[in-house]
């Protein structure tokens, strides 16, 4: 049985789910937030150490301003409503990505969330915001150079936003691509693509995906 230490999820299909069900887009994202809560519950039960969620990519900045503003209002609401739950469940929160692009208000809320949950070790939820794997690798190499270190795999990995390798890479929402997400960390990840739109992801399907992963044979090229 494979140990699952780090699970990465591309949460795709919120808007399509809302449209399919004749609902406003914001309802799709709200339903997606409820699914995140279920996923966190199962990750705690499964004793998974890291859960990394792809929330907003570097490419997403190119979407219409109205849509970007809406997504960050949703993030602001999530940060407001989730802090007490994270504390109650002893879950750590960490944001990864090029956070320098965020406005001061949301950045300070993220810092506050991180500070108030930093001591917890039951699970770390890494939220990828303004994140792109290529950008992350470039920033990591620059840090290595600034520290006058040798440019090698170990030093680059240590200076990434997230140094832990991904065990299982899950993408829901029918698309079969990795979309510039955790490219370095996922070099030997097991990948699972689900046709299910993210807001429709059930606990049963999620648990089955984890169970199927644990039965896979992992060789890491050896």
TrEMBL record:
Enzyme Commission number(s) from the entry: 2.5.1.-
Co-factor remark: Binds 2 magnesium ions per subunit.
CC cofactor: Mg(2+)
Keywords: Magnesium, Metal-binding, Transferase
Function per UniProt: Catalyzes the condensation of isopentenyl diphosphate (IPP) with allylic pyrophosphates generating different type of terpenoids.
PANTHER family referenced in this protein's UniProt entry, alphabetically: DEHYDRODOLICHYL DIPHOSPHATE SYNTHASE 2, DEHYDRODOLICHYL DIPHOSPHATE SYNTHASE FAMILY MEMBER
Gene label: uppS
Superkingdom of origin organism: Bacteria
Enzyme class: transferase
Keyword Magnesium: yes
Family indicated by similarity: Belongs to the UPP synthase family.
GO molecular function, one term: ditrans,polycis-undecaprenyl-diphosphate synthase [(2E,6E)-farnesyl-diphosphate specific] activity
Protein name: Isoprenyl transferase
InterPro entries: UPP_synth-like (IPR001441), UPP_synth-like_sf (IPR036424)
CDD domains: Cis_IPPS (cd00475)
């Amino acid at each position: 049985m494979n140990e699952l230490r780090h699970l990465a999820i591309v949460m795709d299909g919120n808007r399509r789910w809302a449209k399919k069900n004749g609902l406003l887009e914001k309802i799709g994202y709200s339903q997606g937030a409820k699914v995140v809560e279920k996923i966190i519950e199962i990750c705690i039960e499964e004793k998974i150490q890291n859960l990394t969620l792809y929330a907003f990519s570097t490419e997403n900045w190119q979407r219409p301003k109205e849509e970007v503003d809406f997504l960050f209002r949703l993030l602001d609401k999530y940060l407001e409503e989730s802090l007490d739950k994270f504390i109650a469940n002893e879950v750590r929160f960490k944001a990864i990505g090029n956070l320098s692009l965020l406005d001061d208000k949301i950045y300070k809320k993220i810092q506050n969330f991180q500070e108030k949950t930093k001591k917890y070790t039951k699970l770390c939820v890494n939220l990828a915001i303004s994140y792109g794997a290529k950008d992350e690798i470039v920033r990591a190499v620059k840090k290595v150079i600034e520290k006058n270190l040798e440019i090698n795999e170990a030093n680059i990995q240590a200076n990434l936003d997230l140094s832990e390798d991904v065990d299982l890479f899950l993408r829901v929402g029918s698309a079969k691509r990795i979309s510039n997400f955790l490219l370095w960390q996922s070099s030997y990840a097991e990948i699972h693509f689900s046709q299910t739109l993210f807001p429709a992801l059930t606990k049963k399907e999620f648990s089955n995906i984890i169970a199927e992963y644990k039965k896979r044979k992992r060789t890491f090229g050896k």
